[in-house]
Amino acid sequence: MTDDYSPRMGALLAFVGILAAAAGFIIFVLSYNFLIQVEIDAGRPDEANVIRYVFPVLGYLIAAATALWVVSFYGFLIRQKWAWMVGIIAGTIALVCGFFPMIPAASRSQTPYMAITFVPTLVAWIGLVWLRKVHRKPAALAFVAGLAYVLSFMDGVAAIDRIQIIEDDIVQGLYVMVQQVNWWAAAVWAVFIFALLGRRSWAQMVGIGAAIMSMIGGYPVAIDSMLDKGTFSMFAPAPMLSTALLIYLVLPATRDWLVRWARNEDNPAQVGRVSRTAYAGK
């Protein structure tokens, strides 16, 4: 392993990730039917259906994250460079799996046990970024993109509930059409995070695409929700944050430091512009 970080610390963080993800899978098994019944007893069969649909998807993903954490752990033990990126991927997947399940539990005055997965995973993910000594600017951008990733996923979840309770056929059709778009946007934001932290020259293009997808999926339902309820819509944060990220990503200065970052230069925040020839060569 040529990187200047400790494989032992990486292995420790990956082991924490393994325990957290495995615990998450068990919590999904134990809480699935229980939380469905809690929602039904609360008179919200629509939210019970959200759990029926979303929890299995997240359960499959947390199982995949567990396997990836194990692979990362093994990679650190044998001192392989790829172990770090596999851990970042595992943590990114596990974070979204741990976040949403806390919401229906807490909203019904139940203990949000999935915090057992979310908090240690967040610590492990941040620990891996710190371990690699990622510069502050790409680390901060990855964190903000992570917020867009989670919020876009949540827009997709919320759309499932709205689909069931909206009576207007056209508006219901709108929510049906954007539901998966928001989940695709979340997936592309995840790819952007991997590409950014992996110093890939194509990270900027992926981020632009993710932002546009989140805007397509989020703004129509956010506007409809605000017109319907007359209040700020919780659909709005994802496309608004994505809009801000889009503006930032297309700035020439952002392009320049992303190019330098992809070229493994030590100071991606260094003032100065990359020549058009160098940029075209990437």
The total beta strand count reads 0
**Domain module count:** 2
What is the CA-atom radius of gyration, in angstroms?
A: 20 Å
Shape: flat
- Average pLDDT works out at 90
Helix and strand succession?
HHHHHHHHHHH
Number of helices: 11
Instruction: Label the structural class.
Output: mainly alpha
Structure characterization notes:
- The protein is an all-alpha fold and 282 residues long.
- It has two domains: 1-133; 158-282, no CATH class.
- It is 80% helix and 0% strand.
- The chain contains eleven helices and no strands.
- The longest helix has 35 residues, at 7-41.
- The chain starts with 6 loop residues before the first helix and ends with a helix.
- 41% of the residues are buried.
- The model is unreliable at 268-282 (pLDDT under 50).
Describe the protein's topology:
Layout: H1 7-41, H2 45-77, H3 82-99, H4 102-107, H5 115-131, H6 136-165, H7 169-197, H8 203-229, H9 237-250, H10 252-262, H11 276-281
Helix pairs in contact: 1-2, 1-3, 1-5, 2-3, 2-6, 3-5, 3-6, 6-7, 6-8, 6-9, 7-8, 8-9
Note the main attributes of this structure.
282 residues; mainly alpha; 80% helix; 0% strand
Short account of what is shown:
It contains 11 helices and no strands.
